[in-house]
Write a structure and sequence with these properties.
The chain has five helices and eleven strands. The chain is α+β, with helices and mostly antiparallel strands. The strands form two sheets. It has a seven-stranded antiparallel sheet. It has a four-stranded antiparallel sheet with strand order 7-6-5-8, with no helix packed on it. The longest helix has 23 residues. The protein is elongated, with a radius of gyration of 19 Å. It is found in: Cell membrane; Membrane. Belongs to the peptidase S26 family. Keywords: Hydrolase, Membrane, Protease, Transmembrane, Transmembrane helix. Its main location: membrane.
Length: about 190
């Protein structure tokens, strides 16, 4: 009986450690769809650093982030726990498609314009070698990114649901920033 209790205690400690690691340090995600083509492929696994979320710092321009697309609702610590892969698997919410993988285009205070098939930030056209094809999108007026928000877009601009559709992303809806795959072999 003592040995069984030792095993159970070890398993509980490991599960708690994995939960804390996934909430505060890093977590794997799977890309769903083609909105980040050609940079990321459908069903590709990526690793996301949660440190920007844990320590509340703003991602840089061009960084790839995972966001909670449900911007109309407040997020809580419980949302972080429930979205953890272990908990999602146990609760049957593993197929939740509210997390999007996108690229940071605008930060608080930036003024964005969409004209001439390009994105302009603060009056300057962006150099975007990562996009799949010329953007077929134009919008009247300018969009100013509010405080405590970012503006994100997919690299496949013509086939992406992003800030143009769902609006500005509150900072507490940024799950983390993508890190290079530490397990990828160099060829």
């Amino acid at each position: 009986m003592k040995e069984i209790m030792g095993w159970i205690r070890s398993i509980v400690y490991a599960a708690v450690f994995a939960l804390l690691l996934g909430i505060f340090v890093f977590q794997p995600y799977k890309v769903e769809g083609h909105s980040m083509d050609p940079t990321l492929q459908d069903q590709q696994r990526i690793y996301v650093s949660k440190l920007s979320r844990t320590f509340s710092y703003l991602p840089d321009y061009g960084e790839i982030v995972v966001i909670d697309s449900r911007v109309e609702r407040e997020r809580s610590f419980l949302d972080d726990v429930v979205s953890h892969p272990l908990v999602a698997l146990l609760t049957g919410t593993a197929d939740d498609h509210s997390m999007y993988v996108k690229r940071v285009i605008g930060r608080p205070g930036d003024v964005l314009e969409f004209k001439n098939n390009r994105v302009y930030r603060n009056g300057e056209p962006l150099e975007e070698p990562y996009i799949k094809e010329t953007m077929q999108y134009a919008a009247d007026g300018k969009w100013k990114v509010p405080e405590n928000h970012i503006f994100v877009m997919g690299d496949n601009r013509n086939h992406s649901t992003d800030s143009r559709d769902i609006g500005f992303i509150p900072l507490d809806h940024i799950m983390g920033t993508m890190i290079e795959n530490p397990f990828k072999s160099e060829e």
